[in-house]
Specification:
There is one protein chain. This protein folds into two domains: about 80 residues, 3-Layer(aba) Sandwich (His-Me finger endonuclease fold); about 45 residues. It has three helices and seven strands; from the N terminus they run αββααβββββ. The protein is elongated and about 60 Å long. The termini are far apart.
Length: about 160
């Protein structure tokens, strides 16, 4: 399929893979998801490595990237989570620095040891948010990576 730069593609007319291409794509990572490594289900997704970013009008911003060579086999969960992120952005999103239950300290004050209660990746802020409590019976607050440390720091 030849893509002409600047060509707009309609969402319903996105590149269709032949059965042979789907099998080739499945075998690219030995039947495993390119992102999490799980065994691909029978119905798997063909993810664009360089996102094509479909918009609400049904066209895409990178039609030249809608080619077979720009596809990775993906389980549905990873493809939905990756959405329009680059591979680097997706890796950042799926790999928090601090894990639930991990001990942390606040970097700007002499603080007691705290514990991470939850973490979530904020697409709006493009960074991890951590719900941390520093003392029992105190309200838990949200902190960002640069506000936390694994070691106690004195200013």
């Amino acid at each position: 399929m030849k893509i002409i730069k600047g060509q707009k593609r309609i969402r319903n007319k996105a590149m269709k893979l032949t059965n042979k291409q789907r099998e080739e794509l499945r075998n690219k990572y030995n039947g495993r998801c390119a992102y999490c490594g799980c065994e691909l289900p029978e119905v798997f997704h063909a993810d664009h490595i360089i996102p094509i970013r479909r918009n609400s009008g049904g066209t895409c911003e990178n039609p030249q990237a809608d080619i077979f060579e720009n596809l990775n086999p993906s389980c549905p969960s990873c493809n939905k989570m990756k959405h329009t992120l680059s591979i680097e952005g997706f890796r950042t999103m799926t790999n928090p620095k601090y894990n639930i239950g991990q001990s942390v300290y606040h970097v700007t004050t002499e603080s007691d040891k705290g514990v991470v209660l939850d973490c979530i990746y904020s697409l709006r802020k493009n960074q991890w948010e951590y719900l941390v409590t520093f003392r029992a019976n105190e309200q838990s607050l949200i902190y960002y990576e640069e506000e936390l440390s694994e070691n106690k720091i004195y200013e």
